Amino acid sequence: MSTAGRILVVEDSDTERRAITQILKSEGFSVFAAEDAEKALSYADEGIDLVISDVRLGEVSGMDLLTLWKRRQPATQMILLTGYSSVNAAVDAMKAGAYDYLTKPINPDELVLIVRRAIETLHKENEIDDLRRRLDQRFGLERIIGQSRPMKEVFARIQRAAPVDSTVLILGESGTGKELVAQALHHNSHRKKGPFVAVNIAAVPSTLVESELFGHVRGAFTGATDRRMGRFEQADGGTLFIDEVGDFELSLQAKLLRVLETLTLTPVGGHEDLKVNVRVVAATSRDLDDMVRKGTFREDLYYRLHVVSVLLPPLRQRTDDIPILVEHFLKEIAETKHTAKHRVSPEVMRAFVNFPWPGNVRELRNALESMMVLADGEVLTEADLPDKILNGSVSKSGQVDIPDMPLEVLERLAIMQSLEKSGNNRTHAAQRLQISVRTLQRKLKEYEAQNLIPASNDDILAEA
Ligand SMILES: Nc1ncnc2c1ncn2[C@@H]1O[C@H](COP(=O)(O)OP(=O)(O)OP(=O)(O)O)[C@@H](O)[C@H]1O
């Protein structure tokens, strides 16, 4: 028996209203009752899952109630009760968004059955909406972490470029997040319901790049026992992300240019042209300008790709993003890899900020993951740092060097450091910081509410 479900019964006849209410209550639903539309609408913000309303309600009809209610709460399910087995009223009700209708006199079994179904449908719809929302978040801009000025410029460019169908060229060193940007472009475009297909040219043997992209017909070459769809065809109606486009051999660059210009391709070994509807987003970590100068990358292809470009700066040029990336990864790694929750000591954060990160964000994430797996305590300290980072971290001016990062992050680091040095004694930490214990408590609460410090940090939040 389902107990979940809040139902509002709207019926002007006292006897019928009481009877329906009684049946549904005995089935375990939470039931509210109203004798007219005005009273019914006063429940609109009360988390009602289902409204059961008589079609005839006096001044405002059940149909009007349905329209007015849906305007405020479009997700609520509606069942209309009609005195006549009038198909017209039922059709109108369904058109206006009702889930179903019941004819009077009400059969209790039928009522319960339809109510259960309506509520189950609502729960399913909510789940789907939730999933969709989570997916949008997973692939949208939310996945790209960054607050630095260069990253703000990247976000603005993505937002401007996403809705237009132009080719986009993403430039940046390895591990700077080029694929994330390509996905965000796709998921913020009108193609988002179409496929997102990624191909990394550097990872495909040069003899197979052409068939990988354009497909091949049966018998095109030894081993081609079947027709194979290329990546362009797979991405039809969506976006094709070509990573490491700088690795294209010259002979193939001309073919790629032709496909980009005509959106027509010929599978390897085939004779018939194929039209595709694909938006191309390309990326490279190479210096294409230089390649054009040296004659290893076609100038015409370069300009064709470069209609809009997004430049992802290396992590060492946006060190103010490091603390929020660290916070993001600590949480993400704990959730996805089921490791214990950790935080980093201020010394480790300082080493991170001063390390040049040749592998950029990917390297930072990997370093954190291995530290989290190997560390003993809850706090990652200098002892947990890989040697490379410990030795390679270059302080610009000794101990007092203050890294470039938002003031609020610096403040948080200072507070966490004082707490650590005071053995988590808040009175002592507040004295060191020359602030009141209340201010310290307030700040810790704020950090906890924003998930900036783990909720399990009770030892820090406990009364000193
Ligand atoms: N700004 C960011 N916010 C969150 N995660 C990021 C960010 N930038 C990169 N990452 C993460 O770093 C890793 C590498 O990112 P991605 O594959 O997009 O980089 P890339 O530039 O395409 O690398 P490559 O050129 O080597 O293919 C991924 O795990 C990605 O989720």
Automatic annotation (TrEMBL):
Name the record gives this protein: Sigma-54-dependent Fis family transcriptional regulator
Domain Sigma-54 factor interaction: 144-373
Response regulatory domain location: 6-119
Keyword Cell division: no
An example Gene Ontology biological process: phosphorelay signal transduction system
Pfam families: AAA_lid_14, HTH_8, Response_reg, Sigma54_activat
Residues carrying 4-aspartylphosphate: D54
PANTHER family, per database record: SIGMA FACTOR, TRANSCRIPTIONAL REGULATORY PROTEIN
Keyword entries, A-Z: ATP-binding, DNA-binding, Nucleotide-binding, Phosphoprotein, Transcription, Transcription regulation
Entry GO MF terms: ATP binding; sequence-specific DNA binding
Domain of life: Bacteria
Signal peptide residues on this chain, from the entry's feature table: none
The UniProt record lists the keyword Transmembrane helix: no
